[in-house]
Design brief:
- This protein has 11 helices and 8 strands.
- The protein has helices spanning 17-24, 32-44, 48-69, 88-95, 108-112, 136-141, 143-148, 172-181, 200-212, 222-226, 261-264; strands spanning 74-78, 100-105, 125-130, 156-160, 188-194, 233-234, 240-241, 266-272.
- Strands 1, 2, 3, 4, 5, 6, 7 and 8 form an 8-stranded mixed beta sheet that branches.
- The chain is globular, with a radius of gyration of 17 Å.
- Mean pLDDT is 91; it is low at 1-7.
């Protein structure tokens, strides 16, 4: 995408994490500044492309498991990012056509492409709201959310590759707790989070690249990621590396050759609210 095609309100002067992620996934909805920053990350951590792919694959599997095995029919996906098919609602509605999904993001570019997120089955519903995870109260109070989700019935809170963009000073555990407090028993948290555990020097370089580009990050250890699931009943196999969470060769998500843990560098987990 050339800078001349940028929509009003989109800052193309510096890279944006959602557009960099689009580049990692092989998409086309990014600018030169995003490509350059993403390639700088890839030079330090070549596994970033594997990490992005495995993050998407985890989201697909977690969504199917929650729909098939736990009766989830509603999802709140925060930090949606630029739409990449299949989107969460397409995965959920392939299992349960009546699934309802609310997407939330605070990037104007995501809003520009949000119509891709609205292509629901006739039986289901989807919508997109412009909101920031750092203000969970406003997000939950959005009238568009109330039109789609019934917060008296179980909801899956989907936080994929989002919380490492919430620094410790922003109270990440408090944010997740406030979001889960608004959801009833039987709801779920599906979360993925990049980690420095397998190669701390490399991930320090990645941290510096994002921070210097104006996007502070906090990549966390397995122990720190597990804290997000406090009070929830973790599904097997617990908090584990992305490609090791319920691998399903029949889904088409898994590569022919399994990646290494260091390439993936992504902790993932799903928990159910008692």
């Amino acid at each position: 995408m050339s800078n001349t095609r940028a929509a009003r309100g989109i800052d193309t002067s510096r890279p944006h994490s959602a557009r960099m992620y689009d580049y990692y996934l092989g998409g086309k909805d990014h600018f030169d500044v995003d490509k350059q920053a993403a390639e700088t990350v890839a030079a330090a951590y070549p596994g970033i492309f594997v990490c992005a792919r495995e993050n998407r694959a985890f989201m697909h599997r977690a969504t199917r498991v929650l729909a098939r095995e736990h009766g989830i029919r509603q999802w709140l996906d925060i930090g949606t990012g630029i739409p990449t098919e299949p989107n969460l609602h397409q995965v959920a509605q392939s299992v349960v056509p009546e699934a309802r999904v609310v997407y939330a993001d605070n990037d104007p570019l995501v809003l520009k492409y949000a119509e891709r997120l609205m292509r629901s089955t006739p039986q289901g519903r989807t919508t997109y709201i412009e909101a920031d995870v750092n203000d969970p109260g406003a997000l939950l109070a959005a009238p568009e959310l109330a039109e789609i989700l019934d917060l008296d019935r179980p909801v899956a809170l989907s936080l994929n590759a989002l919380m490492h963009f919430v620094t410790d000073a922003q109270d990440p555990y408090g944010i997740v707790s406030r979001l889960l407090d608004a959801l009833p028993s039987g709801s779920a948290l599906a979360l993925s989070h990049c980690t420095p555990d397998f190669d701390p020097p490399t991930w320090q370089k990645v941290t510096d690249i994002y921070t210097n580009a104006g996007t502070p990050v906090r990549f966390r250890s397995q122990k720190d990621v597990a804290r997000f699931f406090a009070g929830l009943d973790l599904l097997d196999p617990g908090v584990t590396v992305g490609h090791r969470w319920r691998p399903d060769a029949s889904s088409g998500d898994e590569p022919a050759q399994a990646p290494t843990d260091a390439e993936v560098s992504l902790w993932t987990g799903v928990g159910i609210k008692p």
